[in-house]
Amino acid sequence: MPIVVQKYGGSSLADAESIKRVAKRISETKKAGNDVVVAVSAMGDTTDELLDLAQEVSPLPPPRELDMLMTAGERISMALVAMAITDLGHSARSFTGSQAGVITDSVHGKAKIIDVTPGRITEALGKGHVVIVAGFQGVSQDTKEITTLGRGGTDTTAVALAAALGADVCEIYTDVDGVFTADPRIVPAARKIDRISAEEMLELAACGSKVLHLRSVEYARRFDIPIHVRSSFSQKIGTTVTDQPAPKETPWKPRSSPASPTTAARPRSPSSASPTGPAWPRRSSRPSRPPRSTST
Fold it and tell me: Domain 3-241 carries which CATH code?
């Protein structure tokens, strides 16, 4: 069964109604005959609120404890999305980053993923469950401590899961219809890009584009994972980010009528008639010579 990995950001999970809408989209993907794995961010502005709360309690919170606090937002989201999916008639299982097998280095606040061991995810998919994973987080390989991946880390979580599971595509859902030439909320004339290479997307991300996190694009390029960026608020086709060649379009051919006398008994082409030569003599391309004069 094809595996589809989806990611939903905070704006897509802002409140209870938004979570129900996301659950419905996930349900439709499951009904289409796919195994579905979903990486979720914290609801709305939860991450910023938790960070502000930490600053109020302690001007310099210990990095370990700050990571423990910051991962709470994604854990709330994963449980609520799993509940909403269950209400739609599907079984769902939620996992934290460490439970999902996201292994990182030991840098708190901006850890890098070094491996993904998705044993529990694979087992859950085999039992027919929809899997919901808390994004933005993992567990250190050395210290076994909880770590966070930094801003935009749920994008990277989704792409890393897609690579580990051999997914057909990684869908990144956001609040815009895809990748644009400029921010459409600021530049009304901005044009949506239907297809873009990973290298070009890396340049956009490096220049400040917030549609995709830089690390997620690097990861997708390294493991050749196609990313589909689209809006969770509409059914519009978004932007495909991939280095894979675009599928070739079938050339248009006029439809011939069976009653047409010009097509009913059309001779075969010379190249297909015989391996040793054409089916009829070739017409000479040289101009005919004038008759030879008989005068002396």
Answer: 3.40.1160.10
